[in-house]
Specification:
By secondary structure, this protein is mostly helical. It has 23 helices and ten strands.
Length: 589
């Protein structure tokens, strides 16, 4: 028959308050359905769920709320106007104890002994993840286009995640595997700033539980998309200024392709990539004038970047799995497999899969590994030594081995000079140099770009080194960077030559003859023929019957700037005109 009581929890004590009955009346207790001693009644009266059982008479009626009085919070903090109950007489329970039915008292410490299924660190990590998710969806870093929710994008993210982690649920966190999975999805750092940004986002997932699951991986993709898109936005604005000559802030379809080419995202690698880029263009919000705004352009270029990187990784995996070749994740650069395979497919037109010595040397020259007649002869010797020592026919795996042997041979030839430069830059005497010194060393090694395309290629290489984990370079890593720079500049020159041949409608076999003839007189490896006599010798090496006088007449037609020097394009134009005239000049002798 005693009125119910309730418990107010303080910061340092457990206080049992007594509900007062009405002073003017002794009405019957309410029904069981609304009694404060039942869960339903406690919810309606505002009492804490732990409040139960009889207490002595007396207390504060206003704390619970009489009819007509305002309801107050059921919780009392220490230091409030309510007196401490262990100083109040009249049957109240001492602080530090919790009343239970029957008037017994349970020690206060028992309240806090809750057996959680997760540790404290795991619970804190869960709260941290929830806060990150809240910020994730409330800020501009992530919008609807960045979400990985359903459809093909979610399936592709699951495929990339499953390649490195066995379960969709919790897996032990592996920083390197997370970065590889992101790269498979198409998210890979291309500059030092992007590398730092990705490292910070991945470390944020790693802190706490030390585990990762598929939902968190999808969240990481969304955050990386938004963060990197913000980082590349200034670069896109600069590229837009060179294309949008009228300063409208919008582009038409041909201008989009031009901007892709300026940023190194075009031309497409194959027909499939071409169709995918066209499909993404169709998805853009075009206005009535067939123009698209910068907001859509920004997302479009990042989507193309993801598309190309994911396609490159997919092609690389397919090649490695098809030939059972193991890829070294620690490599600074991994473009060689694709370049070698593409060159093999173009050289092996009959589809036999086996190469001879001449074809191997041509492939090495095609990917930028050699230049000039002297290096061609040295590479041919390396091929012969491999064939004699192994007795194997040269297929693609054997080509990869020859490629590595030839690169080791080239590194050995420049090791003395490069070692001296390395010791000069190693001021801390710890056998490591800052990656910022790479540009200076390349200049000292006479590895400098001669064309705008080579300048862009070298700048992209320096950005990749800056984006890698190798902030300080060992001597071996420096050798790899110098080798890579040499090959990329030569590969850029090969691409220029292929473009010239395409414009002049020269067949592939004729292009190879042009290269051999041009390199036979370019003994200093400058990419330039410096005299009319050398030009005449190169033409004779092509089998053209020309006299020095006829060459001088042709020079006046192709040397428009009157510099007296001739690049590969000039030589190709000369040969093309002679071919059109029948290959035999009237002044030949």
């Amino acid at each position: 028959g005693n009125p119910p009581r309730r418990v107010s929890l303080g910061a340092s004590q457990c206080v049992v308050e007594q509900e007062a009955t009405a002073a003017a009346s002794h009405e019957a207790p309410p029904q069981v359905a609304s009694s404060p001693s039942t869960p339903q009644g406690r919810r309606r009266s505002g009492m804490h769920p732990l409040a139960q059982g009889p207490v002595a008479d007396g207390g504060d009626a206003e704390a619970i709320g009489e009819p007509g009085s305002p309801r107050r919070s059921p919780f009392r903090l220490a230091g409030s106007e309510q007196p401490c109950l262990d100083q109040v007489e009249g049957g109240l329970v001492h602080a530090g104890a919790l009343p239970v039915p029957g008037g017994r008292v349970r020690p206060r410490s028992a309240i806090w002994k809750i057996n959680h299924r997760r540790t404290k660190d795991e619970r804190l990590a869960f709260v941290g993840h929830a806060l990150r998710m809240k910020r994730h969806y409330e800020t501009v870093v992530c919008n609807q286009r960045d979400l990985v929710q359903s459809g093909e994008v979610k399936e592709f993210a699951q495929e990339c995640f499953a390649r490195y982690f066995p379960s969709r649920g919790y897996n032990d966190f592996d920083h390197e595997h997370v970065l590889e999975a992101l790269a498979d999805f198409g998210i890979r750092a291309q500059t030092g700033v992007e590398r730092s940004c990705l490292a910070a986002l991945v470390s944020g997932i790693e802190r706490g539980t030390g585990t990762i699951d598929l939902p968190r991986f999808c969240t990481l993709i969304e955050e990386c998309r938004g963060a990197i898109r913000i980082l590349i936005s200034p670069q896109l604005i600069k590229a837009l200024q060179f294309v949008d000559l009228e300063d409208r802030g919008t582009l038409v379809r041909p201008q989009l392709w031009q901007m892709l080419a300026d940023l190194g995202l075009a031309p497409p690698a194959n027909q499939e990539e071409q169709e995918q880029i066209e499909a993404k263009m169709d998805e853009l919000e075009w206005d009535k004038a067939k123009q698209v705004a910068f907001y859509d352009i920004e997302h479009f270029f990042f989507d193309v970047r993801e598309l190309r990187e994911a396609g490159r990784r997919r092609k690389e995996r397919k090649i490695l799995e098809g030939y059972s070749i193991t890829r070294n994740p620690g490599d600074l650069f991994s473009r060689h497999i694709i370049d070698l395979h593409d060159a093999l497919m173009m050289s092996d037109t009959e589809g036999q899969g086996a190469l001879d010595e001449k074809e191997v040397v041509h492939i090495l020259a095609e990917v930028g590994c050699l230049y000039g007649m002297a290096e061609r002869e040295q590479a041919a010797q390396v091929v012969r030594d491999f064939a004699e020592s192994t007795g194997m026919e040269i297929d693609f795996p054997a080509l990869v081995i020859i490629f590595e042997r030839w690169r080791r041979f080239q590194r050995a030839t420049r090791r003395d000079k490069l070692g001296a430069l390395f010791r000069l830059c190693d001021r801390a005497a710890n056998w490591r140099i800052p990656s910022e010194q790479l540009a200076t060393i390349l200049v000292q090694m006479d590895i400098v770009p001669a064309t705008s395309k080579q300048q862009e290629t070298l700048a992209r290489l320096l950005e990749e080194v800056d984006a890698s984990e190798h902030r300080d370079l060992s001597f071996h890593e420096l050798e790899e960077c110098v080798q890579e720079a040499t090959e990329r500049l030569r590969k850029a020159q090969r691409d220029i030559e292929a473009g010239v041949a395409l414009e002049l409608d020269l067949p592939r076999a004729r292009l190879q003859q042009l290269r051999l003839a041009f390199e036979s007189v370019d003994t200093e490896h400058t990419g330039i023929i410096s005299s009319e006599d050398d030009l005449y010798q190169a033409a004779r090496a092509m089998g053209l019957k020309l006299s020095p006088a006829s060459v001088r007449r042709k020079v006046d037609e192709i040397d428009l700037d009157h510099s007296g020097t001739f690049e590969f394009a000039d030589f190709a134009v000369l040969v093309r005109r002679i071919d059109d005239e029948g290959g035999l000049d009237d002044g030949a002798g």
